[in-house]
Design a protein that fits this description.
Layout: H1 23-36, H2 45-60
Helix pairs in contact: 1-2
Length: 65
């Protein structure tokens, strides 16, 4: 059996949004949140949930990363 591997592509966070964020944009946004101290680097459930909320804010604010 041959496994099909999908390449990493841009992902639109919300169907209504016109802007597509690349993985590099999201990575820079998360690094910015770490720098501000808004999110913490850790494996706990609360840390992961906060990172996901932070990424969701990227689209809501229509921020240019």
């Amino acid at each position: 059996m041959k496994k099909k591997s999908k390449p990493i592509t841009e992902r639109q966070l919300y169907p209504k949004a016109n802007r597509k964020y690349t993985l590099n944009d999201i990575s820079n946004w998360v690094k910015y949140g770490l720098k501000l101290g808004v999110i913490k680097r850790g494996g706990e459930k609360e840390d992961v949930e906060m990172i996901m909320k932070w990424i969701d804010m990227l689209d809501k604010g229509n921020i240019n990363v």
